[in-house]
Fold this protein.
Amino acid sequence: KVLNMLEGLKSTGNLQAVHGVAIAKVVASPDDKQIAAGKTHNLTSSDELAFLVSVENQGNMSEKEVPVEITLLSADQTEPQKVTMTIPEVKPKETVTVTVKGLNPTTYGEVATLKVVAGPVKDEKFTDNNTIEANVIFTL
């Protein structure tokens, strides 16, 4: 995918608009624990639960109104909890961190799926780095 993009850029000969955002990192608060894709993380059950999502603009155009959506679903829920925040603007090569609150810890000891999605932005071609999915277990 990336090679095709690079070939496309070379063939135009002039600077082409490249749009793309990526999740740089996700940190669970108040534990201050970085969430790694595909891993299982124990998090303290807290009414202060928040996720700090750092979104990097990897393109060469400013991106406006970039959505950041967090979904939390445990086995005993039928509907996932979902919170969406919007980053007003991310300039090229800049990383902006948004704090997402409003999710409640799931049942103690239950494995829940945490999914964080940034973007995609208009005309984004490579979206593999827009999502982080991991398991979380809330403990006392």
